[in-house]
Amino acid sequence: MLQDTLTPQLQAARAKFAGDDGIFWAPIRHHSPACSIYLRQLLDSVQPDAVLIEGAVDFNRQLETLLDAQTVPPVALYGQNSFYPLYDTSPEWVALRWGRQHNKSLYFIDLPIADKAWQREDREHGGISFLHEAYLQHSEFIRKLVQTTRCRHGDELWERWFELRRFDDPAQFFGRVFDYCTAARLTYSEQAIADSGDGARERFMRGEIARHAGKGQRCVVVTGGFHTYALLDWQNAPSHKPQQASPSWLVRYSEDRLDALSGYSAGMPVPGFYRRLLQWRSDLPEYGVAEELLLQVLADLHQHPLFRQQMNTAAKQAVFYQAMQLQQLRGHAWPGLYDILDGLRSVLIKHDAAGDEPLLKQACSLLAGDRLGQVSSALPPLPLVDEVYRLLKRARFKLEQTTKVTTTFTIRQRDNERLALLYQCRFIGLGFAEKTAGPDWEHGLHLHLRSEEWQYAWTPWVEARLVDLSLTAPDWQSLLNQRIQEQLAELRDLSLAEHQKFFVQLLLMKRLDLAHELWRQIGQQLNDCSDCGQLAEFLLLLLRLRQHQNELFEHYAEPIRRVVKQAWQQLMFMLPALNSLPTSAGLRLLLQIREITRECAEALTDDWQNAWQARLHWLEQYGELSVALRYACLALLTELGDGGPAELCAALGKLFDYAPEAAYQAVNAVITVTPHYLLHDDALGLPALLNRLLAGWDEERFMSALPELRLLFSHLDPAAVEKLGDTLCELNGWQAAPPLFNADVDEHLLLQARHLQQQLAAQLKADGLEHWLEPDE
Question: Which residues share a beta bridge with 24?
């Protein structure tokens, strides 16, 4: 049915395609090596006066930049958050180079990049692609062809029909491509094409073809094959008024972003492989292509340890033989990507492999390449791009490839400048680097770690981002200063927590010198802050950061000391608000202050310690606290030497007599803020108190209290549980319990435990009880 519908339309379209005087159509698939080879042959035979290329007319201003002899693909024209990539295998690149070599006129003929029709394109990798083939790849016609030919998908179908076949001449090749793409297009309604934005683009391109061909020039028109059918009726197309060109720039691009397997809709899968195929087809006689291509592929795979381990000489020979045999069996002129992948599968994979077999995915990733293009150094420097590139190179970052590099920095003076540069890039939002491990400076966690791990990569998106930012600032320092001042303005109405986050960012970027206003704003925030939790977190963070004063802020020790003092005074002033907090939040706050006074005691004077003790007294007597928080304050006072554990336990014992439920809460609070009291083994300690109480209970009362008792001990670690057990055994004259906790665990014991775990897992699987195992078993 589909064939009956398409055949008359295709025949009519083919007649127009072949009968255009003065116009020679080159329908292509973007980045196809076969299209590049036959386009070069077509240009050589036709010798046109002008070559018209699908691409925004704004890019005509960049032709000289593109055609500079030092420009090495992959590169991309960038503008309006969009990329127009060019690669070694791109027919557009071949057309541009051929036009320059033969002194022919070259024109881009697509819609200006500011036109709203481009906004209907799918966004890819954070930007819009000016080359888009999603409609071609997902047409009903292609889907039926894939089913009929038993290919896995449209990419394998294209490779078999076009990349791995011999054609008599360019006319035959482009005629076949035209049929293929036009049949795919005719399965869509005109309304669907108009809604996609392609209709507006094609109207504009028809007008540009009419304008250039009307001068009596012989023209070769190079466009995506999906569009060619709509361009055939160009003769009476109206010309469009010239518009002011939007700014655009030439930036480096990368092979990995050209990979269809990574989501690039106009790409070929594994672009590095097809670059090799184009290279050998262009440089060697046809009979030598297959062997050289396979040898190069095996050499590329050998660079990775995974394949060096699994592919000895015999395995390489087997893969070579399998790929050659598959090529001949399938009638291919030379081995294709899927011949090679199937050869790898048959030799290296000895089980039923799914389509996403990790080994094959790794092979595709290696063969895809990660090469970054080059832009001529003779061209005017890109705003910000060259400066930041030089800064990163001077800091010894590897920027030649787009594969993510993982590196570790020691937190010491030597690496500080490199780390500061990474934090600056993160603050600006370049997308250059991300931190994967190390201290959490913003929250004051894991500060004992002495190194940080980062992953970074110089990508086209980094360059594009810098180009966009250059519209707002002329250089890196100006950009940093501008963003810092903008952030300061935004912070005026935000909380102390946001000021804390920004303060740490500036510390890590070593740019506190650009934020004098921040000190005043933090002081005002401290004066206005009534949230004791935020005050405690901010103070604790500052005190923890002081341990790294030499690395982070040696020149700002005095202003930070003043901020610490102000934060402490405000916290003590606002502490009576403890009575408005839920019990859990109140206990957390008391623990934070306890940590401040214990771990950071060297930063606090005796006056400050006295203020803390006086506040606890006031809270215990006049604070109108819940029972739990009142006893937590009593426990902290006892710890400070104001009273003894015996008095605290006596008060708890009386509480059990008339308010047992409240007593559980009080004991839990005491254990939370002073857990070491639970390990006192004297007769007046907390374990002895609980032991005496339990001894006087009957079974019914004990069972009703059991959930609360379990909760009391739930947060103890194994060592504490064992210590408590020993104390209870001694108090009651019981036989000592066997050890529950062994601190002397060596590597041999861990290996034994792992072996036992594996044996248990194997036995459970043998018994059909796999569902008992955790997912990672």
Answer: 220
Does the reported pTM lie above 0.85? no
Please tell me the predicted confidence (pLDDT) of residue 162.
95
Question: Which residue has better confidence, 326 or 758?
Answer: 326
Residues 397-402, mean pLDDT to the nearest whole number: 85
- What is the separation, in whole angstroms, between the first and last Cα of the chain? 52
Instruction: Extract the tokens encoding 487.
Output: 């952030």
169, 175 Cβ separation under 8 angstroms = no
Question: Cα–Cα distance between 33 and 271 in angstroms, integer?
Answer: 10
The average confidence (pLDDT) of the chain is 83
**Token pair recorded at residue 459:** 């990508």
Predicted pLDDT of residue 304: 82
> What does DSSP assign to residue 149?
H
Q: Residues 392-414: what's their mean pLDDT?
A: 84
Question: pLDDT band for position 376 (50/70/90)?
Answer: confident
Q: Which helix (H) or strand (E) holds 516?
A: helix 516-528
d(CA 527, CA 69) in angstroms, rounded, equals: 64
String of DSSP letters for 239-283: P----PPPP-EEEE-BGGGG-GGGT-TTPPSSHHHHHHHHHHHHH
By the 10 Å C-beta count (0-12 exposed, 13-18 middle, 19+ buried), 542 is classed as buried
744 to 682, 717, 741: CA distances (angstroms): 28, 16, 9
**Could you check whether the bond before residue 74 is cis, i.e. omega within 30 degrees of 0?**
yes
* Sheet (strand 23-28) strand order: 23-28, 219-224, 50-56, 105-110
> DSSP 3-state assignment of 642?
coil
Residue carrying the six token digits 């040898």: 295
The SS3 of residue 500 is helix
In one letter, which amino acid is 128?
Answer: I
Question: Helix, strand, or coil here: 79?
Answer: strand
Question: To 10 degrees, what angle do helices 358-368 and 337-348 make?
Answer: 140
* Predicted pLDDT at 306: 79
Distance CA 120, CA 198 (A): 9
Nearest to 430 by CA among 126, 82, 119: 126
CA atoms within 13 A on the CB side of 662: 15
Helices and strands: H and E segment counts in the chain: 35, 12
> pLDDT tier at 687 (50, 70, 90 boundaries)?
confident
Q: Please tell me the predicted confidence (pLDDT) of residue 553.
A: 67
Q: What DSSP assignment string belongs to 352-420?
A: ---TT-HHHHHHHHHHH--BB-B--TTSPPPTTHHHHHHHHHHTT---SB-S-EEEEEESSHHHHHHHH
8 A C-beta contact, residue 463 and residue 83:
no
Per-residue 3-state assignment (H helix, E strand, C coil) for 699-768: HHHHHHHHHHHHHHHCCCCHHHHHHHHHHHHHHHCCCCCCCCCCCCCCHHHHHHHHHHHHHHHHHHHHCC
Contact by Cβ (8 Å): 73, 31: no
Is residue 741 pLDDT above 80, yes or no?
no
